[in-house]
Amino acid sequence: MTLERKGAGKFRTASPSDTERLGELAAPALADGDVLVLTGGLGVGKTHLTKGLARGLGDAHPVTSPTFSLMAVHDGGRIPLFHFDLYRLEHAYELEDTGIYDVLGYEGACVLEWGEQFQDELTDEYLGVLIARVEDDPDARTVTLEPHGERAEELAAAVDAAVRGSC
Ligand SMILES: Nc1ncnc2c1ncn2[C@@H]1O[C@H](COP(=O)(O)OP(=O)(O)O)[C@@H](O)[C@H]1O
Ligand SMILES: [Mg+2]
């Protein structure tokens, strides 16, 4: 396990399981109403991070990408985790059909893949999680927390503290 903390809210993972571990460490900090927007392109590790979040909340069911169903709920843990993958959504008006407005910012924690394209229609209070590939190492990623709003700042600090305590 080589999950590293590179600075405040900035981490480096050396494998898919490290990225899952990061999610697992972050999960205890999640509260009802939290929104995480994961960005970084196809195959960067957004779903792996979400797997870790679900596991860390105590949901034992496997997490797969809800690319076709758009939304998956993992409600076997401490709080529900609503996992949205908006990759296939073309128009903002289609958001209504995903059920996102029923839960976003209210119930459980929401994790959005490809949410940034509809940022204006969603929420301006969220924790951005930027995942990026690392040159010369196909199995490494950097993960940077970018909080928007007071609660997101608090959440980012709690996640940072959890990682700091584990490294
Ligand atoms: N450090 C890493 N963290 C996460 N995934 C990684 C890492 N290194 C390699 N990978 C690979 O990248 C892919 C990430 O897939 P996935 O989590 O589904 O991405 P996304 O949801 O962003 O499209 C997987 O094939 C995984 O094995
Ligand atoms: Mg995905």
Question: What does this molecule look like?
Answer:
Helix content is 29%, strand content 29%. With 167 residues, the chain is α/β, with parallel strands linked by helices. The protein has a single domain (4-166), classed as P-loop containing nucleotide triphosphate hydrolases (Rossmann fold), CATH 3.40.50.300. The protein has an 8-stranded mixed β-sheet with strand order 1-2-8-7-3-6-5-4. A hairpin with a 2-residue loop joins strand 7 (126-134) and strand 8. Helix 1 crosses helix 2. The longest helix has 17 residues, at 150-166. 40% of the residues are buried. The structure holds adenosine-5'-diphosphate and magnesium ion (MG).
Tell me about the biggest sheet?
8 strands, mixed
Spell out which ligands are present.
Answer: adenosine-5'-diphosphate, magnesium ion
Helices, by number, come to: 5
Helix content: 25-40%
Strand content: 25-35%
Low-confidence stretches: none
CATH architecture: 3-Layer(aba) Sandwich
